[in-house]
Amino acid sequence: MAGPPPKPWPTGLTEQLEPLVRRVLAPNPSPYTYTGTQTYIVGSEDRVAVIDPGPDDPSHLDALARAIGDAQIAAIMCTHTHRDHSPAAAPLAERTGAPIVGCAPLVLDDSGPRADASFDRGYSPDRVLLDGEGMTGPGWTLTAVHTPGHTSNHLCFALEESGALFTGDHVMGWSTSVIVPPDGDMSAYMASLDRLYGRADRVYYPAHGAQIDNPRQLVRGMIGHRRQRENQIIRLLAEYGPASAADFVPRMYKGLDPRLSGAAEMSVTAHLVDLERRGMVTRSEDIWTGQ
Predict the structure, then answer these.
(1) Cα 60–169–135 angle (5° rounding)?
(2) Residues 101/129, Cβ–Cβ less than 8 Å
(3) For the chain, which domains are there?
(4) Neighbours of 69 (CB within 10 A)
(5) Which pTM value belongs to this model?
(6) 3-state DSSP call for residue 66?
(7) Are 44 and 140 in contact (CB under 8 A)?
(8) Which among 13, 118, 241, 277 is placed 20 to 30 Å from 21, CA to CA?
(9) Of these residues, 52, 84, 169, 183, which one is catalytic?
(10) 183 flagged as catalytic
């Protein structure tokens, strides 16, 4: 994971990225969110969609109101329901009367520790978009692209008129996505990467980090990186023998920020679960063994 760029960051400011796309950075930087969550406003002066409204922070909601101006909000669209992405949807809908549209709500039975941001259990959409469904406005069309993996309910949104893809946390401009079982699923994540690699998007706008101007090249590298990680796990099991997921972290992540050790352990676990399904490792309680 790369370190953040030097300050000042454009927190609360409206950045025009292309004719139909503006961006507002939320004030929630952290080791997991980089400089913060980036909310995108898509559309014309008259009617817009708001993608990933971000945390329920009054200053961010005020910044969004300034950026939106007098435009009508056709939809508040969430890529997934981590608490750095969707909680502002409800207060923004209350302020504006706009519907909440996008990913499905997610309710987990598991209450174990999580390395990534907690889930927004209060998220309640007015409409759930299925793969290929979308929203339209004057001169713009946003289409949902189902990309499970980071979370089971993750969506990307394709802006058909410009070739832009809003990638949420599935592909980010500063780091690979954290996959946290049981809801995060490495097999689904890899399949979603393969799906994006088969598309012809011009640019990615992620929820964290810089825009991505070479999408297919980056996705190809991400797929290769994940395959290297799983090969590394198999090699370490052969070299050192049975191990817990935590045992892999210091061997695989040299110089890791200690604050990210939990995320690294969860990513290793996600790889191990995927390898177990494929019959390449076995598990006895918390100990993993190579085949």
Answers:
(1) 75
(2) yes
(3) 14-213 (3.60.15.10), 223-290 (1.10.10.10)
(4) 10
(5) 0.95
(6) helix
(7) yes
(8) 118
(9) 84
(10) no
**Computed from CA positions of residues 277, 109, 117, 86, in that sequence, does the dihedral angle turn out positive or negative?**
positive
Q: Mind listing the pLDDT tens digit of every residue in the chain (291 residues)?
A: 567 899 999 999 999 999 999 999 999 999 889 999 999 999 988 999 999 999 999 999 999 999 999 999 999 999 999 999 999 999 999 999 999 999 999 876 655 544 455 789 899 999 999 999 999 999 999 999 999 999 999 999 999 999 999 999 999 988 889 999 989 999 999 999 999 999 999 999 999 999 999 999 999 999 999 999 999 999 999 999 999 999 999 999 988 888 889 889 999 999 999 999 999 999 999 999 998
Residue 149 C-beta-side C-alpha neighbours within 13 Å: 28
Name the residue type at position 115. A
**pLDDT value, residue 173:** 85
Taking residue 37's Cβ as centre, other Cβ atoms within 10 Å add up to 30
Name residue 14's amino acid.
T
Under a CB-based contact definition with an 8 Å cutoff, are residues 54 and 26 in contact? yes
pLDDT at 110: 54
Question: From residue 170, how far is each of 22, 89, 161, 180, 254 by CA, in Å?
Answer: 20, 20, 22, 13, 24
Assigned token pair, 67: 């950026």
Bridge partners (DSSP) of residue 156 are 145
- Model pLDDT, residue 106: 84
* Nearest one of 80, 71, 29 to 51, comparing CA atoms: 80
Helix/strand/coil (H, E, C) string of 78-107?
Answer: ECCCECCCCCCHHHHHHHHCCCEEECCCCC
Q: For the chain, what is the radius of gyration of the CA atoms?
A: 19
Give the residue among 124, 123, 152, 160 at the shortest CA–CA distance from 49: 160
CA distance 38 to 40: 6
